[in-house]
Amino acid sequence: MAEIPNIIPALPELFLASVxxxxxxxxxxxxxxxxxxxxxxxxxxLLSIVALLLAVLLVSTLSGxxxxxxxxxxxxxxxxVYCKVLxxxxxxxxxxxxxxxxxxHDMARFEYSILILFATLGMMMMISANDLISLYIGLExxxxxxxxxxxxxxxxxRSTEAGLKYFVLGAVASGMLLYxxxxxxxxxxxxxxxxxxxxxxxxxxxxSIGVIFGIVFIMAxxxxxxxxxxxxxxxxxxxxxxxxxxxxxxxxxxxxAALALxxxxxxxxxxxxxxxxxQIVIFISMASxxxxxxxxxxxxxxxxxxxxxxxxxVGYALIGLAVGTEAxxxxxxxxxxxxxxxxxxxxxxILSMRRDGHMVENIKDLAGMSRTHPMLALALAILMFSMAxxxxxxxxxxxxxxxxxxxxxHLYMLAIFGVLxxxxxxxxxLRIVQLVYFEDLDEALDKSVAPELGVVITGAGLFVAFFFIxxxxxxxxxxxxxxxxxxx
Amino acid sequence: MxxxxxxxxxxxxxxxxxxxxLTIRGDEAIVKRNAxxxxxxxSVINFALSMFIWVHFDTTTADFQFVESKPWMPAFNIGxxxxxxxxxxxxxxxxxxxxxxxxLASWENINDRVKExxxxxxxLETFMIGMFCALDLVVFYIFFEAVLIPMFLIIGVWxxxxxxxxxxxxxxxxxxxxxxxxxxxxxxxxxAGTTDIPGLMVHRFPxxxxxxxxxxxxxxxxxxxxxxxxxxxxxxxxVEAPTAGSVILAAVLLKFGGxxxxxxxxxxxxxxxxxxxxxxxxxxxxxVIYTSLVALAQEDMKKLIAYSxxxxxxxVTIGAFTLTVQGIEGAIYQMxxxxxxxxxxxxxxxxxxxxxxxxxxxxxxxxxxxxxxxSLIFMVFMLGSVGLPGTAGFVGEFLVLVGAFKAxxxxxxxxxxxxxLGAAYMLYLYRRVIFGSLTKDSLAAIKxxxxxxxxxxxxxxxxxxxxxxxxxxxxxxxHVSVANMITQIDSALNASTAISVAGQ
Lengths: 488, 504
Fold this sequence. Notes:
The complex is a heterodimer of chains A (488) and B (504). Chain A has 488 residues and is mostly helical. Chain A has 19 helices and 4 strands. In chain A, the strands form 2 sheets. Chain A has a two-stranded antiparallel sheet with strand order 1-2. Chain A has a two-stranded antiparallel ribbon with strand order 3-4. Chain B is mainly α and 504 residues long.
């Protein structure tokens, strides 16, 4: 008889899965029609937030050592704990800022929060994957939920288009990933990360070309998921088309999960082949930074601009991975934590841009906002300066540690390229500040900002503004997480 | 040592004032009045505090004084460390003196978004003082670059018609320079294992690495000073900035570059500094002669003074790289004198701009008939800028030339032509604006200085003459630190020569 696996390491995932299904039942059996729909969606999103926060608690109790389970296909370590906390917080914040938007646009259906819940579950699986198979399962659970959410605004062609585009291109990427995995399996005879690492390290320099091919395909698939150049094409369209809170969600949680997965795959099973994959990561990092900086300049839609901005940010995070050392991974993890709050803050500001009750998305609509919304304008300015990496805001420290790692590894060209493209990128962040502060008012935006949005903006703004006072908690958590990855 | 963290207090007191202004609510007129008063009082108290530091400053030691040190990012061995020596002391005083003057100068002509304006200025003061006091490279860098944010807003929100262009140019130019310095800072961190400035000063970087580090720092400081050919942001920024913004920009922000060269480039990379001295001399001489000629052709008063700043900063860089006591003290003195004089000149332009709303030289003429007091004050500062003996400008330029003469006669000769050209463009400006007959209708009813405006100029007037007649109190502050720095540079240079000789 088969042994019963140890379920403790996977407890948060099991918890989220059961809560997700229970909430689905609750939603289905809830009264329907008009007000009842909204009531159901409110109740379920509230419960989802509670579930996500409980999952954070559960996850943090696991922060001990390395705990493999399910035949070593699933692993929980400090690295996983760190990334899962980020993802869970990102998802919870996304649900918080969504509810008002959904209700205003007649799309307050209870499935929304549940889809986010399942997507989050997939992300946690990805982060903890210790086998190419479990990796793929987590990735697909996440992706399929995301495709649906992107098209959640059913009666809007842009949203539907975004969902379809995301699905088609995402399927291609999944295919590449799967193809790469099969190549790796074919040439090494295993899909387990630990065994792969052992096999590939034991080769003594000579790596078979088949494995290299497999790695390249896997990297292509992963680069698509993190929207790094040259696999970024879907990002602007999907970000623009998807409902704004969904875009906010897309720009943080899945991205963090995919980057965590990218790191785990590269450092874990393929850690012995750094010399082979480093140049690829350097290339996609440089290309992402350059494209993120240049292509955003001409954008008029703020969501599209943020899409390019997020491509650029992925480029910076990938610098840390390109370094491939413990310090490098630590810097990526710090970057992701800061990026999460920075980006959620910006998108919450975008969500509160409304005129006569309608969302406005044109950058020009921000003109003169400082006259009517002084505090919102201040928060947005701080977030934009932080995005540009200007000290003393948090964004500066994110970039700082990444570049420290690059310099330590003597990747001078990459670092110089990175800082110079950050100067170019500063231009379009400054343009937002310019519109908000320098320009005169055309038409005022609506005065009222929903209280929950206000709270999120204030929180993100304060974090970004005052991160510098006491950075140690984030630094040491990231250090522990990175160390765990290299201990195994 | 458990004493009061007075430098942190000095640095962050303006920030407290800014937060206080942020909380002011109520009727618009009352908000404006309160914001102005809070800003003025905060900066005046800060000035008094800096006076206290001056009184307690020990001029007999080259060590850093009032040092505070706190762990900040222990994992990276980066700490929060503050302290001042003879070089930074005077710049701190300059900053704390000019901030209240700027706030007073904006008392009436800034009427839009007063609250935000005053907050920007106080935040700016915090960053400027912090930059001069920082004794950790990372802390230094944070202050150094953070300055861009309030200055960007000051130019962009309260500036002239082309303010957007000017503010972006200012921001991106200086950012592009300083990010390279950031990478150099990281490289130094891995070489020396610390970002502690006194520690780095005694650390010997390998000469070939010095070259790259020096170039990266130079990219940042050359833009800030600014040196020819990367000076083009300065005229734009000056013309578009509001009066007080120009004052701070010319008087303090430009000094960042010179201060940086003296604090980092010279003592930390002595070999590279010697190697690049011809480059510095060339660029500085071009700056002195070329921008003086450009100034001669200007039609806009602010632009003229902006170009004259570039020329004066050329003297500073020449003086600093002579590596003589006279040259370096002259460079520091020239920066202080320029801080006072150019600040006053921008304020002088501001006075007539507030009345006529034009900065065109052609719009004026014959002001002496209606504004005798104004003309007198203008004359003193104009002559100070020319470098007339008895004004602050003379002492600095004289010392620089003495140092340059010791180092390289040709450099001194070329630099001296700058003095003549300087006299030419300033006197020409003065003649066109002040003398002649008062024919223009717009000037017929122009009023002389108000009491508030006199109060703004009075301290600067006293200072420019005091610094010209009796420079000893200022030179005493810097002398020991400068002498110590030169000794250290010399010993470092001797050591590396000895190594290269031994290697042959």
